[in-house]
Amino acid sequence: MISAAGIATTRGNLRNISLLAEPGKVLALMGPNGSGKSTLLHVLAGDLAPIAGEVQLLSRPLSAWNRTALAMQRAVLPQASQVAFPVRVCDLVGIGRLPYRGRARGADRRAVAESLAAVGLAPLADALYHRLSGGEKQRVQLARVLAQIWQPQEDTAPRLLLLDEPTNNLDPAQRLAVMECVQSLARRGLAIVAVLHDLSEALRFADDGLMLRDGRVLAQGPIHDVLTPDLIAAAFDVTAAIVVGNGHPAVVTMISGQ
Fold first, then answer.
1. Alpha carbon 120 to chain centroid, angstroms
2. How far, in Å, CA of 181 to CA of 179, rounded?
3. pLDDT per residue over 187-224, tens digit each?
4. Which is it for the CA torsion 39, 45, 49, 53, positive or negative?
5. From 59, 120, 123, 223, which residue has the greatest number of CB atoms within 10 Å?
6. Helices 105-118 & 134-148, crossing angle to 10 degrees?
7. Whether the predicted pLDDT of 255 surpasses 80
8. What is the pTM of this model?
């Protein structure tokens, strides 16, 4: 779906980063603050050109895509999405359809309706966005970027979602709802790359992981091979353990030496 080979940047100081994100899977980008996670996401989105290496989307260099075609193929959810005016949920989600201006409006309506249904918010289509909870707002934003890459069922080409800390500033119940939604979207066939700070979320909901430190790859592969106590310790300078509660693994950390 999307691949990167030998990526290097001045901003974020990435060095020799390679990865592959596949349809039907969640790839978690992890690492300490300043390790280059968001920078790498910007490179994958096409918003930051690397000084070395290449990103390919559907086997075409990212630089060969025009902006409209790229917007129809991949969507990006930033860390924060501020809305400063009253707007209905369905209208906000409809903003994701801007790349399709001049095309059939019926397709836009279906894209909005199906995107809201996919994130479990169809009953709130006519609600005012500013009256929603934080978790509901984040799922609306997820529906907006999903609508951006929505296509009729006969179009089977895979689509890509890039998510930068999708659970930032949410409470535990809201975080769980958003991550369950992200995992469900992957199971529908989307390729998803997500910057995740919460290692327990990554362990529970991601399929693959890439651990960065100081702009370099410390480990990558299946998530259970990347999130081991030794690799977590090497990345974050902490003592770590993997525990299982209610059938789900979680990461417990403490400062090394304590």
1. 18
2. 5
3. 989 999 999 999 999 999 999 999 999 999 999 999 99
4. positive
5. 223
6. 140
7. no
8. 0.92
Over residues 54-103, the pLDDT tens digits come to 999 999 999 899 999 999 999 999 987 778 788 999 999 999 999 988 66
Burial grade of 153 (CB within 10 A; 0-12, 13-18, 19 or more):
exposed
CA distances (Å), origin 179, targets 119, 185, 226, 245: 10, 10, 19, 18
Residue 19, pLDDT > 90, answer: yes
Mean per-residue pLDDT, 45-52: 94
Contact present, 30 and 196 (Cβ < 8 Å): yes
Task: Compute the residue count for the chain.
Answer: 258
**Residue 230 CB contacts under 8 Å (≥ 6 apart), including other chains:** none
Q: Helix, strand, coil % (nearest 5) of the chain? A: 40, 25, 35
Give the whole-angstrom CA distance, residue 3 versus residue 43: 11
What backbone phi and psi angles, to 5 degrees, belong to 73? -105, -30
Please answer whether residues 210 and 27 qualify as being in contact, where contact means their C-beta atoms are separated by less than 8 angstroms. Answer: yes
Nearest to 22 by CA among 155, 182, 207: 207
Q: What are phi and psi of 157, to 5 degrees?
A: -60, 135
Please give the angle made by the CA atoms of 124, 198 and 12, to the nearest 5 degrees. Answer: 105
Six-digit token string for 149: 């890459």
So what's the pLDDT on residue 12?
A: 84
Reading the block at residue 165, the tokens are 């800390």
Assess whether pLDDT exceeds 60 at residue 225: yes
Q: At what angle do helices 172-187 and 105-118 cross, to 10 degrees?
A: 120
